């Protein structure tokens, strides 16, 4: 299969800028190209946000997940906003992912890879290039790294300075996350970090609290037994990811490092390719094929088995375990039809991939009053279907991808607290896609843990 791919592509040497000779979808049109060049030159001199050994460590962990020995939990905002780059919001994102991962460890009996959609998730693909209100058409909002959400010509003009602001905020975010982890935020001996805050009264709180207490007790027991402190217990790994959409920005972060071959994108551990920018001959695939990071490829209902096998060949020609994660997002109504032929084709081609279910992006709907939302039960049903289909096709569900927040927003419908259509306007904050709130996320983790339990009867 990979030979077909070689001939299908114009081929040629890869370099961090070779994508520039291909059609690049979803790129902003900057009115001042000289200003963009100045910013990119600055960006390419600034120090990296992550290191190649962290990236390689993540790739090894993803390779374990491919063999069924770990499980990937990827989650965060659809799009980060500059305004939310503050301590409370960052800590609550970290907390919800840590708490969910604890629940998943308990349920799946596997180590969990925690991958935040943060510290760089500032650029968004849009289905239309312009937005029109009252007869006025302006360029669409494309994320805080590109333009502003307000509806004036000034707000919507792409501004290259925002690339620097995004880079700095990514650095501030990752710095705070590293400090929190270093300072013991994930230490199970500190139950105050693990409490459920405002969801303490929810239907599933007792189950979770019991889990934290049991783990705390086992830990104290082990420490009594060994007569020492389990020093490494609070040292959890945390990785960052974002959609590698803005190619000039990604290129500016693509570096070679001493003592290693290859090129690394050092702005994040795990960049992914969006469903709208995965054209085989397009610029995004050209850029991604040459970097050494583990990468994600989002796949929606329009992909064919032939295209997927060709993409897997181009993006992972050496078939390196951990390199390629397929993040499928079909929606509960289409997964039964779309997923099986893809899994069969990948298996037949002998391609090593990690299957990760994004149950969010295929289940978006608009209410009668025009609010974009998602239903808790559909999200859960897509996860259940993914788990079953992958198993039936001789593969396994290796990870999940959520849009969520640690805050008490009302953006998705349902869950134990029963968010209704009328509730949606109460605290609807997202500028783009609706996210599971804290309580819905915890509930989803508890239900997913049951789904992944080795004791579960099929
Ligand atoms: C997203 O993850 O926010 C997104 C745009 O997804 P997709 O590329 O799958 O549409
Ligand atoms: Co989204």
Along the chain, the helix and strand elements come as HHHEHEEEHHHHEHEEEHEHEHEEEHEH
Number of separate domains: 1
Number of contiguous helices = 14
CATH fold name, please? TIM Barrel
Regions with little confidence, pLDDT below 50 for 5+ residues: 1-10
Classified in CATH, the superfamily is Aldolase class I
CATH class placement: Alpha Beta
Which cofactor or ligand species appear?
phosphoenolpyruvate, cobalt (II) ion
Tell me about this structure:
The protein has helices spanning 2-8, 33-43, 52-66, 87-108, 153-156, 161-182, 191-194, 205-226, 247-252, 283-290, 305-315, 335-348, 376-392, 438-452; strands spanning 70-76, 111-116, 130-133, 136-139, 239-243, 254-255, 264-265, 270-273, 295-299, 324-328, 354-357, 364-366, 372-374, 397-403. Helix 4 (87-108) links the parallel strand 1 (70-76) and strand 2. It has 14 helices and 14 strands. The protein has a single domain (18-452), classed as Aldolase class I (TIM Barrel), CATH 3.20.20. It is α/β, with parallel strands linked by helices and 458 residues long. The model is unreliable at 1-10 (pLDDT under 50). The protein is globular and about 65 Å long. 39% of the residues lie in helices and 13% in strands. The two termini are 34 Å apart. Strands 1-2-5-8-9-10-11-14 form an 8-stranded parallel beta barrel, surrounded by 5 helices. Bound molecules: phosphoenolpyruvate and cobalt (II) ion.
